[in-house]
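Exercise (ungraded).
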Amino acid sequence: MDTINLLLQGFAVALTPVNLLAVFLGAFIGTVIGVLPGLGPTATIALLLPITIGMEMVTALIVMAGIYYGAMYGGSITSILVNIPGEAASVVTCIDGYQMARKGRAGPALGMSAIGSFIGGTVSVVAVMLISPFLAETALKFGAPEMFALLFFAFVCIGGLTGKSRVQGLLMACVGLLLGTVGTDEIQGVDRFVFGTLYLQDGIGLVPLAMGLFGLGEILYNIEKRQSVGEVLATPKGLMPTLKDWKDSAWPMVRGSVLGFGIGIIPGGMPAIASLVSYAVEKKVSKHPEEFGQGAIEGVAGPETANNAATAGGFVPLLTLGIPTNSVLALILASMMMHGVTPGPLMLIKWADVFWGVIASMYIGNIVCLILNLPLIGLFVRMLKVPYSILSPLIIMFILLGSYAVAGNVNDLVATLFFGVIGYLMKRFNIEAAPLILAFVLGPMLENNLSKALIMSRTGDPMFFFSRPISATLISLALLVLFFPLLKWSWRLLSGGHKAQKIA
Amino acid sequence: MNVERFLGLTSVAIATPVAIAAWRFGVGSPQSPGAGFWPLAIALVMLGLGFILVLRPHPNEASAEDEGASRWEKLGISLASLLFYVALLEALGYLLTTALTLLVQLRWVEDRSWRSSVLIAVLVAVLSLLLFKVLLKVSLPLGVLPLPAGW
């Protein structure tokens, strides 16, 4: 079959010494930052952006992908042993995982979590492999209006799917869009918002923005609110789950894979959400829901499978449509564009070796992660004992060095510092930064396609988007997502006022 | 004042001059959008969202959860050292600036002993210089310290 052939070519790319080193490095770094609370895949990939610029596209992708799913594996270790999530996607694992550890069952919890992650990761890569060519072919028929509609839909979902307030999320997304307009306008050559400086003519760099907002901001927040890490339970000896554990976890893992992949594909589908949904589902379908919260292995196996499945799932829209569904993928997208590779329907044609190389390496990467997380787990447990008082200054220096190293420009450092303070303030006041960076990356594409579509329409009539079936559907969906809460709100306002009148 | 209200006001405060500036860039026409078209659209949406945040009713939030005392001093010292770094990197050179900044961080933000701080600061500064300059071939400012030619 054609796919098998292409996959084999992909392995040829993935199995070169450089790329093998890359996948190991990515998986290792990913697991490490997954284990360490406070540093997540977004911040880490932001930190490594300057380095990935110098690499080959495939290699850079392999490293970044490795970091991304590696973090999902590592996050559960801290959750289970210390009751602190190493990663947002591992929050749910704390609930039952830590309880299992307290009952002396840390080993099976860790083991099942690693195995579930492996199954979720591998199954979803298979799904990516099978679905992507089909999706890319469909997307080839997309013109500027369809692209705009799709991006608009993604934008609306992302702005709306943040934890707290939908309006806040959209607002942050708008800020990101605005930041994306800074610089010399490509089409007209007009300088927008450059405040007369030469530096801003090239626009705001993604590296200072990402490193500052996520990396520095996080560290500064941690400095302000330093708490002592909880007590680490000793490294468990036997990691193998019992037969009963396997039986109990089997269906949760199946459900987790499907759920995770499905959630990973849609814009805003973050692994964290996938793990939450999986937990809720497992609790609902369980024959003994009262065990959840006391150390039910289903509460570990399901979510851990789901979050890994979601990470691979996210690569489908990224690689076939060029749409990142969360902040990690947005950074990966930006890195690809810096390499001159535009993901999208043409990717499977123009850069097929990159695509299949990454897919093949994800299979390898999951195996590497499984090995790191089972026999080598002691290594990571020991890492939890490195004092944060050494790590924190080191990470800061790394951030500063990284921003400077991109272009040898002190202005980049200033920018990083500036965004670092903003990032800190956002964290302090619980404002989500993810929509900002997503919109920042998507913004130029949105504007580009919108302009092209409007010119295509000849009349500038917004109804033009509704005259084409695909863009009409997508825009309608987007508007629905956008205005549904508004309708709910006005309804509540009206009926509330009505009630008040009755009382008076 | 509530965080959301403040956010709303800030966005109105930012969106208004942006909208005006966008208008000045030239909005063009719907069938031929100018450079200001897109920023204007964004600014208008921001205005709308900002107003919603300011005007909508906010339930009385519990006062900010105190998950432990806020270490303002530490934050201040840390930021000051970073500003120092940015200001003096090119003048003093990578090695010196990095070592000094790390020292300040380790000793006064992280409260480590003098011995530990100096040791780590110097070690990391030297090792990172080697790593980035030699291995990754990144050019870093030399500055004040006398170093062998060819660096």
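Further reading is listed at the end of the chapter. For now, observe: Chain A has one domain: 2-226+236-495. The radius of gyration of chain A is 23 Å.
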